[in-house]
Amino acid sequence: MKLELAAAVGILMGLSVANAQVPAHAPAPMAKLASAKTTPAPTAQAIARPVVKVNASILTDRDLLRAMYTVFPYARQHNGFPQALEPEIRKAGLEIIIFEELVYQEAKRRGLTVSPSRLRNAEAEFRKQFPSQEVYEEFLKLEANGSRQAMREKIRRSLLIESVLTSDVERKSVVSVAEARAYYSKNPKQYEHGETFNIQTISIIPPANTSPQVQNEARKKAQEALRQAKATKSYREFGLLAEKTSDDDWRVNMGDRKQVERDMLPPPLVEAALKMKPGEVSDLLQFGSNYTLFRLNGYTPAGKAEFAAVQAQIQSDLQKARFNQLRGELHQRLRKTATVNGL
User: At 37, is the pLDDT very low, low, confident or very high (cuts 50, 70, 90)?
Assistant: First the structure.
């Protein structure tokens, strides 16, 4: 869970380069939210009002807006924040800027410094985030009134924040192999799995309530698909045939349904698969008016995953949980002695 420079200074990335950093399309759940009624995002130039005072430091709604973009990075792309979610996004963004300011103040209290070489390297890495010198100059005007020294101080601030988080959170969140093994032993049911089949399918699905003639044509199409499928020699060949021939939803993924649990498959398909070897293609199966054939790519009997197979995931999951816990504890500890007032 290394704190990369991009993450440490990402909060500084202004609206002028947001488009370069936002993915071309949001994952389905986010895309749906972003398509809802939105509150237009204000222009960066108009933002300079105080929103919160943390001890003696005042943070503005420009800082808050950047944080809100990290919480909901699709806002610029979708022309604003979803109105139903904006209060929660704003609350989360406010917590981010308060926490980072508290950590920065803690770094100064400890007398932490940033070496010239580390600062130079960080500046170079930060500069690489911009597609051109022109875009970078625009960013400097927006964020630091064109001052490279002011930008350097922002980067120094981020590095000081990173130093505290590295020592107090990141290093302490590391999970050893022994700890992962102990968790694996104490939670055996988490790593038990049922019987699964790894398959690719080709399905011929005629329209409902069609004439006998259409049904007959569907059967002929299915038989021809079977003939071609039996001639395929690889995952790719079968997959390309599925893309061209199949009517089911998996055709866009080369017919690949990945690992499917036994209980999720019709008994006739399971019965056929248990008699096959990986790489073999089934005979034609009929389900009502639909026809299906499949390629068996793998079979996993019910059992328990070996520790070696899940070790990395256990360590990652435990480390994330510990990281969040330690980060939360640090926040509470710093907040306890701080004076924070909304403005």
Answer: low
